[in-house]
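Service request form, structural biology core

Requester: graduate student, group of Dr. S.
Request type: structure prediction, single chain
Budget code: on file
Notes: please return the result as structure tokens.

Sequence provided:
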Amino acid sequence: MMTLLKAKMVVDKDFRISEIDERIYGSFIEHLGRAVYGGIYDPEHPDADQNGFRADVIHLVKELNIPIIRYPGGNMVSGYNWEDGVGPRQERPRRLELAWRTIETNEIGTNEFVDWAKQVNSEVMMAVNLGTRGIDAARNLIEYCNHPGGTYFSDLRKKHGYEKPHKIKTWCLGNEMDGPWQIGHKTAEEYGRLALETAKVMRLVDPSIELVACGSSNTGMPTFPQYEATTLEHTYEAIDYISLHQYYGNRQNDTSNYLAKSMDMEYFIKTIISTCDYIKAKKRSKKTINLSFDEWNVWYHSNQQDQEIKPWSIAPPQLEDIYNFEDSLLIGSMLMTFLKNSDRVKIACMAQLVNVIAPIMTTDGGGAWRQTIYYPLAHVSKYGRGFALQPIVSSPKYDSKEFTDVPYLDSVAVFNEEEQEVTIFAINRHLEQAIELHADVRSFEGYEIIEHIVLENKDLKATNSLEHQNVFPHNQGISSLNQNGVVEAKLTKASWNVIRLKIQKKF
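Core staff response, request fulfilled:
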């Protein structure tokens, strides 16, 4: 009989990393593929509401408790004229959308998306076009969205049926401007200057906003991390966040290596923190720049089929990755990486939300369903509120093709002081053996285990569909709390675990 691996951890309520900014459970909707048309919006669908939004999608989004959603792109925003998407629908132009080579009908624009975001209890994180446009378009858009009235663009909003300003707080200064694929790609010097001048005018219109400057599109960029350093040289005092983007895949079908890729994300975050703090020291600033990881996910399943899409289609099925069970494990580790760095990572947006590399999928005219990656996001968004705790972990380790000393146990804890709950999130990366976990929680006196949720499947490649939810969590995990205040839990091989403890009141 195969012996269990053994791991230990200490979870103490005083080992606090930071209070968690709930916006790390954000997401992203771009005018790309079926994210908008056929995803959130389908007026011909039997479940469509009076505004044409799919009620079944709204239900699944609300379950995720998404606090902020980035919009409208993405690569698309670098060629987007925001004026095309406001005013009477019958007067809106159709455009060649050059980033993804489709036709943009502009049936949905700024006002409709703000309406939809309110329906799913979310805020909007708006991006401005710094590719083909710049300072003037950005100041006009923020005037349209946020100024109370009495000026051309604020009164135009009122004319379009929106008397009150949208009060959008968080704004992205462009998208992936370091990327040669980007419409209007710019060097760091070019972008830094433009971002600074755009930030200045936007803050003149609304001083209350927060601004996100573009950083590197991924760790493989030849300009990483110099792009951030140069950009921050220009923008440091004018912005609040620097953005990070990263996607992973398992193209070599090496699962042990794939599940360790969150270590690359950790490296990315630490490098950008160091870069920000270097510029802070260089400028002798008292201001700290935080991180907005506003694109992240697994993305590789759909690459081949995307090459076969006919150009200039309307809302073709682009980037429709069908995720498997092992993808959900990496997603869990990526979410825990945000929690471990919650002192500096304040915003994160899973890209994207519906149909396009998404946790939620729809069928045209039919139902909507949860992908495998839906569940870790739902769990962490629900139970990962409060203070992130730094556990002291002792775990067996392994080496993979790209990484050394990969702990089989990947774990973090969250303390919700208001609800008097502590949650341990844990992944067993071992593909063959269970882990016997001993978690010392003595500082949480009077707490008891109330639930142990497990996401597991014997088939690492198992997927979900509308008809079959093959990957689905259960709450029958094996764990107990002994008299010494130690959680004893069995983490089955290749599994995602959520162990919840709550104080038990004595009457």
